[in-house]
Amino acid sequence: MKITRLLPLAAVALLGLAGCSKSDDAANTSKLEVRLMDAPGDFQSVVLDVRQIEVHLKDEGDPDGWKTLNFSPQVINVLEYVNGRSALLVSDDFAPGDLKEIRLILGPNSYVVGRDGQQYDLKTPSGQTSGVKLKLEKATLKQRETFQLLLDFDVAKSIVERGNWKPGNDKKERYLLKPVIRVVAQDLRGGIVGTVSPAAARPQILAIRSSILGPDTVSTSADASGAYQIGGLPAGTYRVEYYPSATSPANQPAYRNVIRTGITVVNEQMTPLGNTSLN
């Protein structure tokens, strides 16, 4: 899904206080889950080499406020986690408190497989050194609450082709990874779900909500069966736009852009949109 801004969310602080009994710990702590998801992109695979995940527990300018989460380094093909599926990266107990930032440290082994079947390295200089930092606003995890922090990776914006690259050049130099990630509070369980026809149109779907901060846009793409789903949406009224990515076959009606307005999203519910025809 596409990212236009970071949503306010709740998150984590330190482990339970030393000296408390196990029963006290269970009563006083909360659980944090960190998940990663994505929308389809114009690649066969997009593999991220995630080495470490950290959270910042103190003031933004405090260099000693970072805490490493209980995460096992792994490579993740983010294109496997679409249409409501997500990869569980972290599940851990924490004491209630505030969180300022989350940071991903990426290793050197990220790559993409293009539509041509060729593998291309992803250069991630910032991710390998200082990490990919995501600021959080008003982030407070409450006692005895399980909170899911969803990292929504935008393939279309995050993978940038070098302007001077040409076929025949070094494959390692074709793409740069400049991660664009929307942070969503998973307890915001509103969303939309539906299908498009014909499925061969493979449209991009945008859910657009107006707010005091400007339009908040989240997007995904329909899968091969025409199905799509966008979760983690705040309650409100949305405009849903459909843009076909394919061309209709010869002697058949052209695929068209479609805009649906007045779509109401309610927290804790998926709003069914039924089928949308693009003919």
UniProtKB/TrEMBL annotation:
UniProt name for this protein: DUF4382 domain-containing protein
GO molecular function: carbohydrate binding
Keyword presence, Acetylation: no
Range of residues in the leader sequence: 1-26
Biological source species: Hymenobacter cyanobacteriorum
Domain DUF4382: 29-179
Domain of life of the organism encoding this protein: Bacteria
Keywords: Signal
